[in-house]
Amino acid sequence: MNTFKLFFFLLLNLDRHFVSGSPSNDSSSSEWSTNNMLISFCLIIMLILLSVNIFLFIKLNKIDRMTDRLIENNPLWSNGYIIKRN
Predict the structure, then answer these.
(1) Mean pLDDT score of the chain, rounded to an integer?
(2) Which residues contact 25 (CB under 8 A, 6 or more apart)?
(3) Which single residue of 6, 28, 38, 78 could bond 23 by disulfide (Cβ 3.0 to 4.6 Å)?
């Protein structure tokens, strides 16, 4: 959640030189380059977080389905009881 706040903070606080599109002198050129690098960094971080989120979603869904099957086959398992079969 904090990464999203940082990302939007950086997007909202971009320098006017970056928004206008063309740097006018060397100092604004370096600011434009820095802002460009920050946006690229934020986008890379967002893509990494998105891929981790998708991966965890898939894995947790798999665990949930396995748990559902286990409860279906052994209903008392969810209550903490162990059924001994011979």
Answers:
(1) 76
(2) none
(3) 28
